[in-house]
Structure formats: structure tokens, C-alpha cells
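Repro case for the chain-ordering regression, as requested:
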Amino acid sequence: MKLRNLIISGSIIASSFLASVALAEDTIKVGVLHSLSGTMAISETTLKDTVLMMIEEQNKMGGLLGKKLEAVVVDPASNWPLFAEKTRELLAKEKVDVIFGCWTSVSRKSVLPVIEELNGLMFYPVQYEGEESSKNVFYTGAAPNQQAIPAVDYLMNEIGAKRWVLLGTDYVYPRTTNKILEAYLKSKGVKDKDIMINYTPFGHSDWQGIVSDVKKFGSTGMKTAVVSTVNGDANIPFYKELGNQGISAQDIPVVAFSVGEEELSGFDTKPLVGHLAAWNYFQSIESEANSEFIAKWKKYIKDDKRVTNDPMEATYIGFKMWAKAVEKVGTTDVNAVEQAMIGVTVPNLTGGIAVMNPNHHLSKPVFIGEIQDDGQVEVVWQTADTVIGDAWSDFLPSSKNLMSDWTPPMSCGNYDVTSGKCSGKM
Amino acid sequence: MTLIQRLIFLMLLTVGLTWPLKAAEFENFEAAIAALPQADFKSLPELLAGIAELDDQRVSSLFVHISQGEVYFQKSDKRVFYVLDQADGSARIIDALNGEVSQDIEKKQLSKVKTNNRIRSDITQLQAQLNLNHPDPNIRLTAAREMLADVSRISDKRLADRQNKESDGDVADILSLIAALKQFSKDDAVSQLSALTQLDSTLEPDVSQVLAAASQDAEHYSAEVQTKIKATLANIESQRNLYSYAENIFFGLSLGSVLLLAAIGLAITFGVMGVINMAHGEMMMLGAYTTYVIQQWFPNLIEYSLLIAVPAAFLVSGSVGVIIERSIIQFLKGRPLETLLATFGVSLILQQLVRTVFSPLNRQVIAPEWMSGSWQINPVFSVTFNRLYIILFSLAVFFMLLIFLKKSALGLHVRAVAQNRDMARALSIRSNWVDAATFGLGSGIAGIAGVVLSQLTNVGPNLGQAYIIDSFLVVVFGGVGNLWGTLVSAMTLGVLNKFLEPLTGPVMASIIVLVGLVFFIQKRPMGLFPQKGRAVE
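-- result from build under test --
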């Protein structure tokens, strides 16, 4: 009896194993690692839908290498350790060929050791603090020199800002970005007493005291600007308080790095009008590719009111690049694709060409826009040319000697130019 | 570059031959309007400066519309229109030249004359010059304030004219400040000193800036004047400190009143009934979503939406509370751990429900006009209306609840059941029914808190989680079962937080408050106002 059970169960396991192998040969599996529940669901669900839309489109064009693409969607539920577990599940159990995923830096840091151990491939589509370059990750969002630094340049040169308030939510991205910005401002001759730095917890809603401090800080007669790395959710009470205390964008402009079209669609935009946002993409930028993309997105999501945003474009570019690289080498093998990715070009939605550089970061144009009352952002300034993403900031003493180049013979994400060694810094 | 310099620069540019946009000198208003559609960010400021020179009635309305982004032009024939969006979603389209309303033009055919912050602030400055003679005293006041920043922009003669004509007291005060500042900038010690006596008690930030700059400037101001300036500055500074103290107290009370609203419902369910309700935050979330739904249903009644939402949210959250009590909590009576877990489960279910029904994105709840803006008591102290109303509202809710519990029959029953369930039952009080009603009442008040929170923070599925811990803290600190304790503890925590915040930053401030609370609870486990006598059991 026992023996029979064993044989039956054994054969069931074996056959299901075979079936899954057979299935795996028919399709290319694409892992989607975005939170569909919890705090980050608000932002990440959109990216999951974007990847699914891209997969559907690719399949309509006949898939890749003659195979259909198959999406494997998992929900890491805004829970950082769960990101690591789900990555392991995607790579070890589902055997996906590529992963599109993560939003917050802390989730990316959680995925990193797993993806390096199992030699997976991930595309990370969100603007981040830099100071990282992994062989297994391609960063299609902006590095600080592609968002924060140009925004500060704009405020300094075009608006004439002399005093600076750096506001941020208390976690790794704002802290690192503000450290870089502080060093940058000082290198431009801004004094200590003209920089005010303040951190607030996630979802902070009582901004009265801070806004009143900003008001006092800005009433010395010198033009004051606020650089905000405040995370999505805490923004609306912040801008509301600014409006209520009578500070307009003309008095003290606020440039935000985490407020895009998607976030604005949930805001009462009245108090935000005229404040600034810095990104590499805006829905309002007119180009043929962009209007086509917007139309496609609205049709796919079946909602005419949905908007597009920067991380969606980054996902779009990442997906297109991956598909191009896979076709180039004719396999989905991680090592081959990783090498083929470098130098791949894909047209931006806003015009111009995105190039994947040897440091796994993109070259991107930078736009500064003013927020309009309809929740769209109108471009008021842009860089003349695309900016190459810098993995290691030149303005931090700990990283100014580091560089990243994943092409042989260097093949290193953290090469120290002074010691001539791969420093192993993470 | 100050604005006046910039304007002079622009004037020079426009007069200069090399500059292609000489057109900023216009024959008349018609010619200026015709140039608008061609303007971009670079040329628009010059164009507007040119328009400001025109002596035309229509200039000021053009400036108003342009700074609000309401100026459009027709793509085909470049005619310029003002597009005023109406509350019902349609748009009134008005010809900029003759003020006639066009019926046959749609917004789609028009494209916007783009502006940015710099252009808008240029316009504010240009308007200030025009508006100094505006019939509305409030507009004159703003214009005069704008002038304070750089008094050299107005000539002595124009100022004297204006001062003679001025009937409004506030505007006259600012005008005499401008006069004093002008006198102060003269190169003679006597007039400087007499100007200083006039400037002595003013709190306008622009004035202190001028004084601060003067105190560094030994060339124009003699030693005697310098001492007087320092004394004046010190005087202003001490007044400012006083007001910033008052401001901090106000901030603290307003934070406290939000805490009070969030905690007061819990003070009933947790404090009176002894149920640890982890879904309390979600009751607030439901209240906030009720406000959203009301605004969606009655888009024309935004100004009244909050007044409608308060009873509606009370009913929605209250009835959900009754359902939860009847279906779950009554079966877990006397088992606090299980109640905690079950209500935590309920909170997750409610969150995901809202995510499915309304989408995980935050919903937009509009602030009515009367909730925005602030009451400017003096130049350094203003009170925002929304916070002021919330303080008053939360106190009103508190006292109504107190009276309800003390005076009504149901209130009497609630207190009876809380003190001694068995005895109350023996006196033919239906304790089950009272439990459900009490829980419904607590949840309903949480719903009202949600309406208030919708005005302060994001309306999203996670709204409740942010407040649940704070609510428990307030109730425990105040003493379980004591409503007055809840009031005192909410206000104490609020004010404490706001006084620590400038010193330590908001993150550290909450940590210090939390650690302080832990020690306090160690010392006095029953909170600030422990219940005495037989009620303790």
C-alpha cells in the first residue's frame, strides 16, 4: 500500500515537473516584482500594468526569438524582506529570464543579494540616490545627476535662489540625495547658514511648524527655494500647508523629485500650481511616440483619465532594451544579455535616444516643469543634451574616486581609480 | 538683480536697437494683444512690461487673467481670449479686446499663453504699481505691501498724493511705513533717527531686512544711528519671539485637536467598553471616503460638502461599527487578545475592500474655499483657517459627547454597563444592545474624525494606520475610561510635540515623546486621571 502510494505520488511529481519543463521551453518568462498591496501599491500597480501591456504588445508582434512571453506576477506587498523571498521564488522556482521590479531603494537593496547570488537580471525603473552599480541590475530611472543636480542648477541660475531648504522623508533616498546636494551647493559657494535640512517621517501630515520655519528662513530678503525629496504621500498636506500659510510658488518655489502625474491625479492641485517637478519624462511633452504611448496606455487600462509618468517611461525603455538585447544575442542567458545590453539604444518617448551605458545607467534628457491646475506638468526648462547617469556621485568624498564599467577588462561596478582596484563597496 | 533693475534693463533692451523684440513699445492695447500669441517665456516679460506702460483700462484685467493662466489664443486667427472655467465644467470665453462673450468657439480650438513663476512674479510687481489706486482697499493693501520690498520704486510725490487720498487705516499704515523707509534711506542722521522712531514697533519682515542691512552699513549710518538701529532690531526681535511662542502653542493645540478627534472615539470603545479595536483607524478611513463620495455625488455643493459629510460619515462608520460588534466582537467578550487579532483582521479586510472598490490610489478631496487661507493677525503671526475650525470643531464634538454621556438615557445605560455589567443587567438594561450602540457611537465619531482628516491628509487606504497608534497613546496617557483625561492628554501631547519639533526635528520629537510616555506609564500605569473607587474594576 505504502509502496503504491509512493509510486503514484512520485510519478505525479515527475510528470508535473516534466510538464513544467516542457512549458518553460515554449515561453520566455518575465517576472514582475511590484507591490500590489500595502503602502507602495499606489505607485507600483501602475508599473505592473505597464509591463503587462508591453508583454501583450510584444506577443502581438510574434513574441521574442519565436517564443511567446509569459508574465509571472508576484506581490511583495510593500514588505521589504518579502521582496527578497519573492525574488528567490521567481528565480529558483519559476526560473524567469528577467525581472522588472522594485520602487523604493530599500526594496532594491533587499533584492540585491538574492539576485546576485542566483545570477538573475533585473530592471529598476525609478529615480534613486545612486551609489550603487550591480552586474545584475539595470537602472533605467534617474541617478542624482540626472534629476537633483540639474534641478538645483535651474533654481540657482534661472530663478536666482540663494538660500536652500532641503526637505525630505527620513529614509535612504532623501538622505543620500540631500548629502550629495549639500556637497554640491557648498562647492558652488553656498554657506552653511544658507542651507536648512529637515527630515520628516513617512506619511507626515502635520507640517505647520516646518512650513512656518521655512517661511521665516525665506523672509531674509534672499531668494529661497525648497528642494523636496518628500515621499509621495506626505506631499499633499505639505503643499496644502504652504498654500494656507500664504506661501506661493512665486515667493518660495518648491521643486519635487517624487511628485509626478500619477501622484498629482490624487491631489487637490490648487495649492500646487506653479511649483516645480524635475523628471526625465512628462506626459505633456508633445511627440509622436509619446502620444502613441499615451493612447495605447489609456486603451490598455480602459480608463481615459489615467495618466502616464516617468517611471512608466523608464519601464518602457527598459523593456524595449531588453527585447533588443535578447534578439541581438539570440538567447535569454543572463550573462550574454547583460553584455549585449551595453550600448543598446531605444528612442525616448520625448524625443532623442536613450543609450545604456557601461555603468548600467541610461543617458537621459532632464526636464523641469511647472505643475498646472489640471495635474499636468508644463516644461519650463530642459537640458540641452542627454545626461549620462553617474552611478557614483562626484560630490561625495566616499564615492568620488569610484567608477563603474561592466565591460571587460574592467567588469567592475565599483572600481577605485586611485588604488586601481575593484573596491567591493556596495 | 532687483526687480527695478530688471525692469530698467528690460526697458533699455526694448529701446535698444539690437534687440529684435522692439515691439514691447506698443501703439495701443490692440497692438500689444496681437503680439501675445507669438510670445515665449523669454519675450513675454518684456512684452508685459510694455503693456504696463499703456494707459488703458483693460491692462489690469489682462494682468489678472494672465497670472491665473486664463489667457488663450485661437490657433487659426490668433485672436486672444480669456477662458474662465465655470463650476459646471464648461468655460466662458471672452474676447480680450472688447469683452464680448463668444458662444461659437470651443476651448479645443484655443491654445494657452504659457507663463511661469518668473513671469507671474513680474506681473505681481507690475500690478502693484497699477493697484495702488485700486478702489478695493484689500487690493491696495497687497499692492502697498509689495512696495515695501523696494520703496525706491515709488516717487515721493506719488506717495504723498496717495497718502492724502487714502481713507483705509491699514493701507495708510503701510504707506506711512513706506514714507518712513524712504526717509530712513536719506543721508542725514536727523531724518534717519526720526524715521527709526516710526519704524520701532513694526513687524513687517521687509522693514527688519532694511534695518539689518543698515546695521552692517557704517558708511551711511553714523554710530549714534547704529545704536538706535540695534535697539530697534532687538525690540522687533523680542516681539517676534513672543509671537513665535504663540504660534507654537497654536500649532500644538491644533495637533492636539486632531489627536483628540482621532482618540475620542477610541476613548469610548476602548476606555468605556474595554474593547481593543484595531480597526478604529479604518473607521476614520471610511469617514474620509464618505467625504470623497459626497463630493462626487454633489459636485455643485463643494462648499457645503463637509457639513453634509459629518452626519453621513457618522452614520456610515457607525453602522459598520455596529455590524462589526454584532458579528465579531460580542462573541469575543473578555478575551482581549483574540479581540485584538480579530479586529486587526477586520482592519486589513476593510483596507483591501477600499483598495478594490476605489483603487489603491489616493482620492482627491477638495478643500472648500472657507477652509483655505489664513487669518493674518500681524505680519509675523497668522492662523490658518482650517486648523482654527478644526480646533473649534473637535472641542464641540468633545463637549457634545460629554453631555450625551452625562445627560441622555443611553448615556446613563452606557455608564452603567461600563461600571457593572451584571448589576446593570439585573436592573433590566439590555447590555448587548448597549454594547452595540456604544461601539457604533465610538465608530461613528471616528468617522467624523475621518471627515476632518480628509482636509489635512491624503484620503487613501492607509489613512487609518497612521493614526491608530497615536490614538491608543492618547487614551492610555489620559487614563482609560476618562474623557476629560483624553482631552488633556491630547492637548498636552500636541503642544509638547510642537515645542520639541523645532529643537530636535519631527522624527526625534516623536521619539522623545514616546520614550517619555513609556516612563510615565511605568510611574503611573493608570494614566493622568486614573479612575477611582469601584469603577476601577
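Ordering looks correct now. Chain B touches chain A through 57 residues (CB under 8 Å).
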